[in-house]
Amino acid sequence: MVRDLSLSRIRQGLRDKEFSSREITQAYLDRIEQLDSGLNSFTQAFRDAALAAADAADQRLASGDARPLEGVPIAHKDILATTEGRTTCGSKMLAHYCSPFDATVVDRLAAAGAVVVGKTNMDEFAMGSSNETSYFGPVRNPWCTDAVPGGSSGGSAAAVAARLAAGATGTDTGGSIRQPAALCGITGLKPTYGRCSRYGLVAFASSLDQPGPMAQTAEDCAHLLGAMAGHDERDSTSVARPVDDYTTGLESDLTGKVIGVPSEFFTEGLAPDVERAVQAALDQYRELGAEVREIHLPHYPYAIPTYQVISAAEASSNLARFDGVRYTHRAENPKNLVDMYESTRAEGFGAEVQRRVMVGTFVLSAGYYDAYYLKAQKVRTRIRDDFAAAFEEVDLIAGPTSPTAAFGIGEKAADPVAMYLSDLYTTAANLAGVPGISFPCGFSQGGLPVGMHLMANFFREDLLLNAAHRYQQVTDWHARVPEGV
């Protein structure tokens, strides 16, 4: 029933009384029960709560009092605080933590009428590019269960790709919405920094983290973003700016729009089959009336090391609160207070989290702050300036989302540097704070999805959604469904 229905189609079908929210929600919950044992995309499903919410949605639909997402089943990444179930962040440290409040984006989607079917698996504390660092085990890509789904929002991406939810929330610190969207063949949007509230999002890197929507299509993401976005007094980084109706401009003509393609993107490390798919997508944009021209982002090659220094520094500060004193995992029978701190953090954090916390502590330490952290912040400013200059000449910046299609589980686990390079094309958008979107544009030689990445100027999510939607109107990559699901 739900295998071929997008979020937008479900939304309309509920209004047209083609089916009820209970029927749709039950179908998704049944699919989770039947299929997720082979994917591990959920940490928990909310069967009773979801069905109760669906029944309430049906009552509102029947009375003509439907809200924008009334009755539509979605999932939340398990880094967003929810009063329903646990908020684990994919970590042993928070494996049993129950939040006393909901994150703002969770509240807003509930206020829009969405029904939550569960919470999705993720890299521990959002640190990873493959969804292999979760305490609850790796998520598997629905297109090939021996391959990774990308990370850290890999659970959300896999759930949407396998049609276990109509849409999902993700968070993006260096590509963690867009890269798994590309590897799983769905659409994922990282909004402008400050467009969606971070209140209730368990922080990894506070100056980089941003929640965003993940779904089959750009139109679906437009509906989700409209509900999620907006100023929040509880988040000092939230921008006081009106929320656009992102659906109204989806059909706008692309004639006259200028798409810049940085020469820095098409260099060593980009798989030939990924490059071919992206170049074919650029040709399609030419046919849609857009002008495509080469541009330069001179400091782009420094994005990965800059991101690693800044994100690790902020992670070491944010994760200091997890010490076993107030809540979270606590080591048993410590010898003294210091031993409790050390043992709790050694047991509660996985290897990747420990690695990044140690790097972050080092770059913030006396004698190294200027050499690493301060220098990284200066390079970040240069990267942001490059984007500002580029957007004086072009409307959009295009390229691949990931240098390769999905790689095998365990293939890069022993090589952190190779893993970090999976975010080669996405981290700069977070450093600059600009929005980016990934959507399917083809398949690799091995039959795995390839994603195209577009970036736009601050708060031009409408332009990204318009460009992705127009492309999806003339292609069907986004409509393909993995075999066996």
Can you offer a commentary on this structure?
- The model has no long low-confidence stretch (mean pLDDT 96).
- The chain has 485 residues and is an alpha/beta fold.
- β2 (73-77), α4 and β3 form a beta-alpha-beta unit.
- The protein has helices at residues 7-15, 21-35, 47-63, 104-111, 154-161, 178-184, 218-228, 272-287, 303-318, 337-348, 351-363, 369-390, 416-420, 427-432, 461-473, and strands at residues 42-45, 73-77, 115-120, 167-171, 187-190, 211-215, 258-262, 291-295, 396-400, 436-443, 449-456.
- The longest helix is centred in the last third of the chain and has 22 residues, at 369-390.
- α2 runs antiparallel to α3 (47-63), α7 runs antiparallel to α15 (461-473) and α9 (303-318) crosses α11 (351-363).
- It is globular, with a radius of gyration of 21 Å.
- It has an 11-stranded mixed beta sheet with strand order 1-3-2-4-6-5-10-11-9-7-8, sandwiched between helices.
- The chain has 15 helices and 11 strands.
- Helices cover 37% and strands 12% of the residues.
